[in-house]
Each structure stands twice: as C-alpha cells, then as structure tokens.
Amino acid sequence: MNQTKHEVHKNNQNATEENHSDEILECFNASGPIIKDRVYEYLLNGRDIPNWQKNDIFNTYDIDLHEGQVLAAILEITDKDAGMDMKKRLEEKKAVLKSIKEKIFHCIEKCEFIRFHTVIGDLGVMKIIMQPGSACRDNMFYNRTAEFFEYLIMTIRRNFNVKITIGVGNIYGELAEVCLSYFEAKDALGHKYLLGENRAIYYNQYTYSFNYRFIISQENEQQLTSCIINGNSEYYRVIGDIFNEIYRSGRTDFYSIFTALNYLLANVTKQLGSKYLSLNKICNFSEFTGMNFSECSNITEMKNAFISKVSGLLQMISEYYLVHKNVMVRNVCEYVLQNVDSNITLKSISDQFFISINYFSYLFKEQTGENFQGYLSRVKMERAKMLLKNSSYKAYEVGNMLGYHEPAYFSKLFRKYAGCTPTEYRNTPNESYQT
Q: Left, alpha or beta for 3 (phi > 0: left; psi -120 to 50: alpha)?
C-alpha cells in the first residue's frame, strides 16, 4: 500500500528519534558520576535529550537541573612556566590542579544562593552550569554570580601560584539554551589575551562590533616595540603619539580604545619574549600584559596605566643589562641568563669570552656599578624564586640546581635577597613578596 508524503516523513522522523534515543541510552549506560558529566556535556554542546528520557535520567541519577534561568561559565587555570621540561611540568600541574579543585568545590559548597553543576574538561579547565536556588530577577542572579567569582579568584590567587580566568556567558530562560551561554563563555574567555588573566570576563560587557574597533597604527606599534627592545627612552614620545592619535579620532567608547591598547601591549610583550628568551627563566612576561579596564575611568588614566606597563618592561630588560651600551657586558649578561642553571664562575666567564678575570671584574663594575658576583647571585636568586613557586623541588634541590651545594649558605643568600628563607617564600601567598 502506497504511503503519503506525510506518512513517509512521519516514519522517517520516528526512526530518527528512535536512533537518537538508542544513542542516548548507550551513551548513558555507565555509573552515576560519569552519567552526570555526560548529561552536562550534552547540554553544553547543544545536544537534545528527549523530555521523557531527561526526566527519567535526572530522577535516577539525582541531577538537580530544572527548567528556568541558566548560565554557563568556563574556568581556566594556567600555571607559570618555570622552564621545567614538559613531563615534569605536567606532573606538577596535575598535583596543583587537584588541590585547586578541592578548594573550588569548598567555595561552591559555601554558596547557598546558586546551584552549581561542574564538569572537568581539558587539563586546567572546568565547565560550570549555574542556576539560582530559587526564582529571582536576572540582575540579582547575575550579581550573585559575579560576587562568587570575585571571591573564588581571590581565594585561588591567595593560596596558589597560578592564574585563574573565568569566561561567563549570558543568562537564558530555558535549560536547553545553556549551550548558547556556554559558547558565549568561550568567546569571553578568548578576550584574556587582550584583557589579561586573573579575572572574570563577562560576555555581555566585552562584545562589540568589529567594524567599530579602534586600531593603533602599525607604524606606532613598530616604533614602540623598537624603543623597548633597544632600551630607548624615546618610548615616552611614541606613547604620546599613540594617545594623540586616540584624541584626534574623537572616540569616546573606552572599551574599544582599551582593547586596542591591550592588543598593542600583548603584541609588544610577545616580541620581547621572543627577543629575550633567556629572561623567561627568571621573569614572567605575562605579568606585563593586560591592563585592568575597571581601574581606568578616562583616557588620561588609561595613558598612565599604559606608561606604567611599558616602563616596567623596559626596567626589567635594563636591570639585567640586556641593552647595555657595552657589548662585552651585554653578551656576558645574556650568557648568564641562558645558563643560569649551570655552575657559572668568573673563570668560566674568562674562558668563554677570552678575557682576563681581573680585567673583566674591573670592566663589569666600572660599567654597571655592580660587581659581577653580585649580579650573578641576583639572577640566581630570581631563578630560585621561580622554581620555588612553580615546582615541587625541595629548597635544597633548588640550591643544588643553581650551584649552591650547602643548604645553609643557599638559605642565607636567599634571605638576603628575598627577606625570608626559601621555605617561607614558597609557603607565603603571592601577594606578600615582590618577585
């Protein structure tokens, strides 16, 4: 008997739903915790679960999700690379992340107003579905969410030497729309390269039309980069030119200007990191990227914040004599940074650069005002700080790596530079010491 077009379509639709249902049942054929993660992943990725199955699965596995307001966020944790080999770094990161997850869950348990549903993604990534504990206005839900994330970031930064950045999507009215909020959270998280890390980035605050983006001229970017790389004080004039360009544009949308400045800062810092690779062993270039938009209420404040960042970059390069006018001093300092984990002595410098020990000692002191041994110790202590904060090496192991085989001497020297012992430094929250 011939079927009508409607009947054929209906049969095909039923077959599709049966196949989809079989796929879901097969996917959810696992233990409770795994099924919860799979449900969350299904929802975040926009895959439908038929209502009759959804209710059954939610009830069976105690999944406390319901129709109504929903918001998604992505929490990303990044470590500060201390120059370890990849295998060692991966082991360290796994151990730290385990402790951080425990701290995050502890914070979540203390938040009564919001219901959280978490799923662990790639290493260092946590996806979060949030719903209010009871019906409320969207702005109240959003404000409570912002308060929680601010508290969470502060707690993590106080207890761990990592960066935590959170991308937050918009609030939607139906559970199935959580995928839209999730995609927005991913987009918001992408702004960290412009806005900096260690913050919550909200999609609805930082979206704007590409056509209205302010772009700083390539000529000014190249001039600024050249000034910093070469230690040229003309950078101040170039920054003046950049802001004159901003004033002439007549732009009043601070976010587009702020984004352009952060983009410029990210580009300059990236080029500096490539130029002076050895500095990555003792300095964290990422600390100089990302101006805080919330701290700037006008263009003048933006200019001052930008000058402060650029000055910090130039000072970092200058204080290790990488742009020193004397070629010998410059080359030796570069060599020290490249080989900071080796046993460097005046004799090894003499042999490497074919210069007498006495003459080099005189030259270095005369050119820099600092004796070479003091410079060497300063570099090694900065390296020690990086290793203590970013690895599980014991204090005496860090000392051995840097050529200090007497723990007591290493501890005494470290205290001279850092104001505390290596162990005290490691156990102290990041904010307490300037590193």
A: beta
Q: For the chain, what is the mean pLDDT?
A: 81
Give SS3 for 320: coil
Separation of alpha carbons 180 and 19, rounded Å:
25
In the chain, the amino acid numbered 200 is A
How many other CB atoms are there within 10 angstroms of residue 389's CB atom? 20
Reduced to 3 states (helix: H, G, I; strand: E, B; else coil), residue 213 is: coil
Positive or negative: CA dihedral 76, 174, 11, 7: negative
φ, ψ of residue 402 to 5 degrees: the values are: -95, 5
pTM over 0.85: no
- Comparing CA positions, the residue from 210, 224, 95 lying closest to residue 161 is 95
Query: Cα(41)–Cα(35) distance, rounded to whole angstroms?
Result: 10
Question: Do 181 and 70 form a contact (C-beta atoms < 8 A)?
Answer: yes
- Provide the pLDDT confidence category of residue 302 given band limits of 50, 70 and 90: confident
Whether residue 142 contacts residue 171, with contact meaning beta carbons closer than 8 Å, is answered with yes
Calpha distance 29→15 (Å, rounded) = 21
To which H or E segment does residue 331 belong?
helix 327-338
Q: Which contiguous run of DSSP H or E holds residue 237?
A: helix 235-249
Report the distance separating Cα 27 and Cα 49, nearest Å: 11
Asked if pLDDT for residue 289 goes beyond 90, the answer is no
183-222 confidence digits (pLDDT tens)? 999 988 887 766 677 888 888 876 544 445 677 888 888 8
Give CA–CA dist 213/208, Å, rounded.
8
CA 185, 186, 187, 190 torsion-angle sign: positive
